[in-house]
Amino acid sequence: MAKVKITLVKGISKRTPSQRATLVALGLGKTNSSSEKEVSPTITGMINKVKHVLKIENI
Fold it and tell me: Do the beta carbons of residue 50 and residue 18 sit within 8 Å?
């Protein structure tokens, strides 16, 4: 399976509650925190929901 590294580049303080919950579920809590995830339809949907605050790299 392919993996992606996701990094939070903007803070979560001004996000909606559902976007905050999505970021926490992705394992991102603070600015510049990173997480590696397997690519799946669920993870892809979560990334698309908050892609405006993420930096995404394929591994």
Answer: no
Phi (first) and psi of residue 7, to 5 degrees: -125, 130
pLDDT confidence band for 2 (50 / 70 / 90) = very high
CATH number (domain holding residue 17): 3.30.1390.20
Q: Which domain holds residue 14?
A: 3-58
For residue 7, what are its two tokens?
Answer: 């990094």
- The pTM assigned to this predicted structure is 0.90
- Secondary structure (3-state) at 25: helix
Domain tally, the chain:
1
